[in-house]
Specification:
Helix content is about 30%, strand content about 30%. The protein is α+β, with helices and mostly antiparallel strands. It has two domains: about 45 residues; about 80 residues, Immunoglobulin-like (Sandwich). The longest helix is centred in the N-terminal third of the chain and has 45 residues. It is rod-shaped and about 100 Å long. The N and C termini lie far apart (about 95 Å).
């Protein structure tokens, strides 16, 4: 009788160990996929670090004047998506090299005075976060 009891305890112990190992594998798969997705997102945003530009003016006729200051990344020029009141306008602007001032004239759209304009630079195929806001005015550029 004690032999059967000992075999039963061994089988129970082995089953518990297998269940624990299965649980560890399941938890690891969830954690690993979350960590790798977060790492990919962080890698894409590193190209945006040090982005330094200023929206000098933006007016109701759709004109935008931008100055690129010194800083990383070291690219000759880059494009940026145009957002008004946090909504993507579908427009892009080309921003020149360091210390250049670029004026973009958009004859298709008009914006309202008081709307908030922001740019989202695109560096190496990665769209960066929205930059600082600039109020749209009626002042000519």
């Amino acid at each position: 009788m004690s032999l059967k009891k000992a075999q039963g305890e061994i089988i129970t112990t082995v089953l518990i160990i297998l269940l624990v190992l299965a649980a560890i594998v399941i938890v690891w798969q969830v954690v690993q996929s979350s960590v790798s997705r977060g790492g990919e997102q962080a890698k894409g945003q590193t190209s945006c670090i040090g982005m330094n530009y200023v929206i000098l003016k933006a007016n109701t006729t759709g004109a935008i004047q931008i100055r690129r200051n010194t800083g990383v990344p070291d690219v000759a020029s880059f494009t940026a998506r145009v957002f008004v009141n946090s909504a993507d306008t579908g427009k892009k602007v080309l921003i020149g090299g360091e210390l250049n001032t670029t004026t973009f004239y958009n004859d298709v759209v008009t914006w309202n005075a008081g709307d908030k304009l922001q740019l989202a630079p695109i560096i190496s195929g990665t769209q960066c976060d929205l930059g600082p806001e600039k109020l749209i005015t009626t002042e000519a550029i």
